Amino acid sequence: MKIIGNLLWWLFGGIESAMCYFSGSLAMALTIVGIPFAIQTFKLGLLCLWPFGSKVTQGNSPTGCLRVPLNIIWFIFGGIWAWLSHICFGVLLFITIIGIPFAKQHFKMAGLALTPFGKNVDLGI
Q1: Alpha helices in 50-99 (DSSP H)
Q2: Vertex 46, ends 41 and 43: CA angle to 5°?
Q3: DSSP state of 119
Q4: Separation CA 123–CA 55 (nearest Å)
Q5: Are 70 and 76 in contact (CB under 8 A)?
Q6: Which of 2, 73, 98, 110 is the most buried (most CB within 10 A)?
Q7: Distances (CA, A) of 71 to 5, 53, 109
């Protein structure tokens, strides 16, 4: 089921969303200051490529005690917009019966988009 779900996800916009996350990650990685944020955006892009069968778990972050301030900076400078877009798409898909599995994946991505520092993505592939 997860293979079919991922294929349908790619067909209806998953690849485009992942490419947007990857290009944003590349743009942030070009600056020295943006490298930690680029890693988190890359994590979101990977989850956007393989949402079905993957899990977001709380894990040990290499940033250590900087996790909270980095999450606050992330939230202020773009995390809220990524979170809102995933929530809006999730609500729109949840209204339809056939879109409920895709809505659940958007809600999973919204949780990661809100505070990505300190979370791990297990792709399950």
Answers
A1: 67-74, 80-95
A2: 35
A3: E
A4: 6
A5: no
A6: 110
A7: 30, 26, 15
**Contact present, 114 and 75 (Cβ < 8 Å):** yes
> Sorting pLDDT into bands at 50, 70 and 90, what band is 63?
low
Rg over alpha carbons for the chain, rounded to the nearest Å, is 14
* Amino acid found at 98: I
pLDDT tens, 19-34? 988 998 999 999 988 8
Return the DSSP state at 56. E
Which are the contacts of 35, defined by CB distance < 8 A and separation ≥ 6? 28, 29
Please give the structure tokens belonging to residue 84.
Answer: 């809102």
Q: In this predicted model, what pLDDT tens digit does every residue of 45-58 receive, in sequence order? A: 998 888 998 888 88
